[in-house]
Amino acid sequence: MSYQKKYLPLVLSVAIAAGVFIGGKLNFTDSPDRLFSTNSKKDKLNRLIDYIDYDYVDEINTDSIVDVTVNGILNNLDPHSVYIPKEDMERVAEEMKGDFVGIGVSFYTYKDTITVIRAIEGGPSEKAGIKGGDRIIMADGDSLYGSSLQDGELVKKLKGSLNSKVKLKVYRKGEPELLDITVKRGKIPIKSVDAAYMLTEKLGYIKVNRFAESTYKEFKKALDKLQNLGATEVALDLRDNPGGFLGIAEQMVDEFLEDDKLILFTKNKRGSIEKSFATSKGDFEDGQIYVLIDENSASASEIVAGALQDNDKGIIVGRRSYGKGLVQREMDLGDGSAVRLTVSRYYTPTGRSIQRPYKNGNKDYYDEYFERLDSGELLDPEKIQVADSLKFTTPKGKVVYGGGGIIPDVFVPIDNSMHNETLNFLQRRGFISYFVFEELEKDRHLYDGISKRDFIDSFEINDDLVFAFQDYLNVRTDSKITFVAYHDEVKQYLKATLADQLYGGGSFEEIFNQRDIMIDEVIKLSDEN
C-alpha cells in the first residue's frame, strides 16, 4: 500500500477518468426552487422508495436502492456523468485537491505490519527521522499490526488534523529496542508531476499524471527548473493521464501559447459559448514543445494537445488519444455523496469536438480500446479511421480531425517489449515492488554512498537478481515463469523500482524512459531541429 499509487491498470484508469472537470460545485442549497421544484416524475420516484421502505416484505437498505437508482439514471446519459458514493468522496476529493494531511510515508502492509518503503522527501516523517524499512508498530498507543486491520483503517490512524502530533513506536532492524518517534502531521502532496529532468543539453522532460488543483504549481516549478538548466525545448509527457480540472489545463497551455490565442471554447445545451484565451503570462512561448500522448490520454490531456496542435504550436507525438470532449460539474447530493454531471462540450480552437460516439452504451464505449488494439491502429497509423465530414484546418494549413481523440503529428507505435502483458501484470499486482523491497531488507547499507545520479547512470542489475526474481515468483504464484525472452526488460523494471524505493523523485521514470521508443523519437525530432 502506498499513498501514491502510481501504476494502476491503464484501461481501468481511463475508464474511471476524472475527465474535464469544472472546479465550481453545484449544491442542493444553491437554487432549490429552480433546480428541484416538485413535479410528478420526482414524486413518483420518492413514493416508490418510501413504499418499499415501509411495506416491502424484507428489510431493505433503501440507501442502496437510491445508489442503484442514481447510477441507473446516469448510465442512460453519457459515460462520464458519474455518481460518487459517500464512502469514496474523501479519497476522490484528496486526489483532485492534490494533497492530504498525514505523516508522509509510502508504505506496505508487510507481514501484517505497516512497513515504510520511503519517507516522502521533505515530509514530516523524514524530518522526524523515519527511514525506509522501519515498521510502525503503534500510533498513540493503538496497535497498527495484525491481520484484522485493513489498509483503510491503518491510513485513518496515521491521518489527523494539520499540525497535530502522533506518537509512534517504531521497530528498526539492528536496534535493540523499539524507537519512540513523534511526528507532527503536515500537508502531504499527491504528486502530479512524476518526473522533471533533462533528456539532452537543450531538451527537458516533464511527466504529468493528472490535472489536480496543485498540478499547475508543480508543473510551473518543474518548467522553471528545466529552463534554469538550459532547456529551450520541452517534452511534456501526458501518456496515461486521464484528465482533471479544466482550468489547470488552460493554465498549462498558456505557458506555451502567445497572447490572445484561443485555447478552447465550451458550449452547453442552450447554445451558450464560453471561450478561453492565452494571456501574457506564458514563460515558454518561444520554446519548442513536444506533447506525448497515447490511447489513455484523456480529456484535459487532450485539451492541451488539441490547443497546441490547432494553433500550429509544437509537435504532438504518439498515438491517437482517448477521445473525451465532455465537461462535468460536481453537485453535492446533501448526504456526503455527489454527482459529476456532464454540462457542456468543449471544442478545440479550430472548432472540432474530439468526443467519441457513445450512443451504443457504456460497455461499447469502453470496449473501443480493444477494438483499436484488434484493428492494428496501435501499430499502424493508416489503420486510424477518420471521417472527411470532421476535417478541420489549422491556420497554417495542417489538416486535423474531430470525432474521436487527437491524432498525433508524429505517430509512434506501441512498443510490445515495454508493454509486455506479463511484466505489466506483475507490476500492477505489486510483485516487482515486494520483491525489490525484500531484497533491500537484506542489507540496505549496500547502497550507502551511492548517489541517485550515480545509481541512474552507472548501477547495473546483475543476472542473479533476475533469476532470484524468477524463483520468487514461481514460489508465490505456483507457476513456471521464465524471463528468457525479455531478460533486459526485467532488469529495467527491477532497477527502476529499486531506484524509486531508494531515491524517489522521478528516478523510476528516468530509468524506465531509457528504453522508451517514444522518448527516442522526441530526441530524434529535437536533433533534427
Overview of the structural elements:
This protein has 529 residues and is of the alpha/beta class. Helices cover 36% and strands 22% of the residues. It has 3 domains: 99-189, Pdz3 Domain (Roll); 193-414, 2-enoyl-CoA Hydratase, Chain A, domain 1 (Alpha-Beta Complex); 421-521, no CATH class. It is globular. Residues 81-151 form the PDZ domain. The chain crosses the membrane at residues 7-28.
Pick out its properties:
19 helices, Pdz3 Domain, 3 domains, 7-stranded mixed beta sheet, 6-stranded antiparallel beta sheet, protease, hydrolase, 36% helix, 2-enoyl-CoA Hydratase, Chain A, domain 1, 529 residues, S41 family peptidase, alpha/beta, disordered N terminus
Major sheet details? 7 strands, mixed
What is the rounded Rg? 25 Å
Q: Kindly report the CATH topology of the largest domain.
A: 2-enoyl-CoA Hydratase, Chain A, domain 1
Average pLDDT, rounded to a whole number, is 89
Straight-line N-to-C gap: 44 Å
CATH class of the largest domain: Alpha Beta
The count of DSSP E runs of length 2 or more, i.e. the number of strands, is 23
Number of helices: 19
Query: Which structural class fits the helix and strand makeup?
Result: alpha/beta
- Which geometry do the CA atoms define? globular
Strand % is 15-25%
Low-confidence sequence ranges: 1-17, 27-34
